[in-house]
Design goal:
The complex is a heterodimer. Chain A contains 20 helices and 2 strands. By secondary structure, chain A is an all-alpha fold. In chain A, strand 1 and strand 2 form a beta hairpin. In chain A, helix 10 runs antiparallel to helix 11, helix 12 packs across helix 14 and helix 17 runs antiparallel to helix 20. By secondary structure, chain B is an alpha+beta fold. In chain B, a hairpin with a 3-residue loop joins strand 16 and strand 17. Chain B is elongated and about 75 Å long. The chains are: A mainly alpha, B alpha+beta. Bound molecules: adenosine-5'-triphosphate and magnesium ion. Adenosine-5'-triphosphate binds next to strand 2 and helix 1 of chain B.
Chain lengths: ~400, ~375
């Protein structure tokens, strides 16, 4: 009996965090994941066609009648959405469907021949294939688009003319995140070192500066960079006043400005783990290295640096993963060519109203982040913290 | 490797801001000797060690290794080994790599390093743990690794700052013996810091006693114990009685002094400060007797207050009029067993007493 009650109380204890995780993460993430493969527009609007058509999409009188029935029943709005989506798979299908819909007011369609009479294009197998594929409630169309595939005239997949732009953007996102992580660590290391080992005044001042920027909104800090870096901004005015340049230098709305602002925004995430790591290294270690004959440089390389490796990895990893999902900063200080994947997700969601594409890109980004975390976890596992000597 | 016969400390002083931590410390450390710096907490032992190691610059004075002035030589170029109180092993390296560190820094070649590391780990009896990380060792084992690392590069001097203060009693005793064995075997000069007088007495050739940054006396343990030059050293090493005394006639081996109203003979040296002196008597030099042995003996009479039995001996605390409480050791099974409150007589030999200048109370 006590076992049962123990079991129940454990369950109760576990239930709360599980529910918390479920509602805050799994449910919304699941929703996004579903959206990325969702094809219900077609499925819901052409129910008769969906059940009548076979997998290969062989046209028949029965299917033609079902399609005519569905089209007649469809209202303007859902037909428009339907036509747009099908057009993605079979170019020309949009006008074909709209034309057919109009013709249905006068003609009664009993079989295939009637459709062909409305438009001879119904002879083309590609349109029937498009219907057949979309009869399924799920589609991988968005994933195909994301990796740069589109439909060839025969209805198969081919690499699109514009190439795999989203893969390129993903690659750019990775590359810029890597740059940000490396630069942030290079700046954070001496900063954290000064805070960990410096005299108290230096320590308080630097730590204060880092934490202050940590607590300030990203938007505010990014805007500050715009003010500082713009053509009539502080930096340009200073450069001109010093006579170093004649004309204002383009510092913003380019890659340099974007990286600079991102590094600044993310710097605390590199400083804090490093600081935490460095604080655990006793000052005696440096004296010990010196007494054993190592000069300052060598004792840093052989004794100090290896002991801060974990801090570097945690700091760089955190900055990298946060960079992958960055949106506001590049949007405000970058040129179109500096935008990260998140920008396109927002664009699909807010401007193009293409939720499927937005969800797909989100899922891809999330998968990359999870992959990054898995790698970090592995590294952490292999890089066992060397517990300090007593 | 430099050949030198001694490390000379010449009037070393050290200030931290306005606070003077070392006062004019002068000391010769002979090559191959085992010198212990002994003193209470805060007396400046660690500071002196840091000056020797080169981590702190002295404010005044010189440091000479043989004829070379090394006062301003940086720590990494002094070739002095150092064992820290917390061992300061490198946690990311194995035991073997810790010991190899000073050799790699000196660019020894691989095979020589390997051989040396093996030799050093054998020396401290840790050959089987070469591939462990420091965190996987016990305190005593870490201590040995630190020792092996500090000795691996054949330092001219090995400095040890309270290396055993974190270990338990039994382990301490073992390591003390081992440290002496290693010292004898290698012949390296050891400078050992401790505030434990037993440790200092049992291990060293020479003991230097520090108090408030001043060197109070240097010498072999026996000399320090038997012929302390001042009250601080006498009190710091072992149990002691100080009896107020007056010098009647200073005649070399046959001086006469007055102690608690009695005239006594004194055979040792006599301090120059003519006025007050006090007589130092170690409890084991005093014999407790039922009756005065008669003229010609140094004898004080008093009343036994407390008798404390230790098994191997007993401590008698005797109230002597005019001299306060005097402690004396008696053998465990004496023929004479006074009861508390009995009158007893305290007898000592003329050559066992030490006369010290009576100091004004330390400020
Ligand atoms: N960095 C420093 N700044 C100012 N004063 C210091 C500093 N280091 C030590 N002192 C002072 O110097 C004096 C001697 O210190 P030191 O550490 O040498 O003593 P110690 O003999 O080693 O004592 P312990 O047995 O407690 O280790 C102490 O009064 C201490 O407060
Ligand atoms: Mg100390």
């Amino acid at each position: 009996m006590s076992r049962v009650s123990l079991y129940l109380s454990t369950l109760l204890l576990v239930a709360l965090p599980v529910a918390y995780v479920a509602f805050l993460y799994l449910v919304p993430l699941g929703g996004v994941a579903l959206r990325s493969v969702d094809n219900s527009t077609i499925h819901a609007n052409l129910p008769a066609t969906a059940s009548a058509i076979d997998e290969a999409g062989a046209p028949s009188d029965e299917v033609a009648a079902a399609l005519a029935k569905d089209l007649a029943a469809a209202d303007r709005r859902s037909l428009g959405e339907l036509a747009r989506l099908l057009n993605l798979d079979a170019p020309g299908m949009r006008s074909l469907l709209l034309k057919t819909k109009r013709a249905l007011d006068e003609v009664e369609v009993k079989g295939l021949a009637d459709l062909r009479a409305i438009d001879p294009d119904w002879d083309e197998p590609i349109y029937w294939q498009a219907l057949a594929e979309n009869a399924q409630p799920y589609t991988f169309r968005y994933y195909a688009t994301a990796i740069g595939l589109d439909r060839d005239p025969a209805g198969g997949w081919q690499f699109g003319a514009e190439g795999a732009i989203y893969l390129q953007i993903l690659l750019r996102t990775f590359w810029m995140s890597l740059q940000v992580a490396v630069i942030a660590c290079l700046i954070a290391y001496p900063l954290a070192h000064a805070i960990a080992n410096g005299p108290p005044t230096v320590r308080v001042l630097l730590l204060g500066a880092v934490l202050l920027s940590f607590w300030m909104s990203i938007l505010v800090r990014t805007t500050a960079w715009v003010v500082i870096l713009q053509r009539e901004g502080l930096v340009n005015e200073a450069l001109m006043a010093l006579g170093l340049v004649r004309e204002p230098v383009q510092l913003i709305f380019n890659r340099l400005g974007t990286l600079l602002a991102m590094v600044h925004v993310l710097l605390p995430f590199a400083v804090l783990p490093l600081l935490n790591n460095m604080k655990q290294i006793p000052a005696q270690q440096r004296d010990a290295a010196r007494s054993l004959g190592a000069g300052p440089f060598e004792s840093f390389l052989r004794v100090y640096l290896p002991q801060t490796m974990r801090g570097i990895l945690v700091g760089a990893g955190t900055v990298f993963i946060l960079s992958l999902g960055f949106y506001i900063t590049p949007a405000l200080v970058g040129s179109p060519g500096d935008q990260l994947l998140s920008y396109y997700i927002a664009d699909f969601m807010l401007k193009q109203l293409n939720w499927g594409m937005a969800s797909t890109l989100s899922v891809i980004l999330l998968a990359c982040v999870l992959l990054g975390l898995a790698v970090a976890w592995l590294v952490n596992l292999l890089w066992r913290p060397a517990a300090r000597a007593a | 490797m430099t050949t030198h016969d001694r490390l000379r400390l010449e009037r070393l002083s050290k200030h931290y801001g306005r606070h003077q931590v070392l006062h004019d410390v002068s000391l010769d450390i002979e090559r191959g000797s085992f010198l212990t710096l002994l003193g209470p907490s805060g007396s400046g032992k660690t500071t002196l060690l840091k000056v020797l190691a080169g981590f702190e610059r002295c404010s005044a004075g010189r440091l000479l290794l043989g004829d070379a002035d090394i006062t301003s030589l940086p720590a990494e170029r002094r070739n002095f080994g150092l064992v820290f109180q917390g061992y300061a092993l490198f946690p990311h390296m194995t035991v073997a790599n810790n010991v190899a560190f000073p050799l790699k820094v000196r660019r020894w070649d691989r095979s020589r390093i390997e051989a040396r590391v093996r030799e050093m780990l054998e020396l401290v009896q840790l050959g089987h743990l070469a591939h462990r990380k420091p965190a996987e060792l016990s305190g005593g084992q870490q201590q040995r690794v630190a020792l092996a690392r500090a000795l691996a590069f054949e330092p001219d001097l090995l400095l040890l700052d309270e290396p055993m203060s974190a270990l338990d009693r039994k382990l301490r005793a073992d390591l003390q013996i081992e440290l002496r064995r290693i010292h004898r075997r290698l012949g390296t000069t050891f400078v050992y810091v401790t505030h434990d007088q037993d440790e200092a007495m049992t291990m060293s050739d020479q003991v230097a006693v520090l108090d408030h940054g001043r060197l109070m006396q240097v010498g072999p343990p026996e000399t320090l114990y038997e012929r302390p030059e001042n009250r601080f050293v006498a009190e710091f090493l072992g149990r002691s009685n100080f009896l107020p005394a007056r010098l009647l006639a200073a005649e070399g081996p046959g001086s006469r002094i007055e102690v608690a109203g009695r005239t006594c003979r004194h055979a040792g040296p006599v301090p120059e400060a003519g006025h007050g002196v006090s007589l130092l008597l170690r409890p084991e030099d005093i014999e407790v007797r039922p009756a005065s042995p008669g003229d010609g003996w140094n004898c004080l009479s008093g009343r036994l207050q407390i008798r404390t039995y230790f098994g191997d001996r007993a401590l008698y605390q005797v109230e002597v009029p005019g001299a306060g409480t005097v402690s004396a050791y008696a053998p465990a099974r004496p023929e004479f067993r006074p009861a508390e409150g009995d009158e007893v007589h305290l007898v000592w030999r003329a050559e066992d007493g030490v006369l010290l200048p009576a100091e004004a109370e330390r400020s």
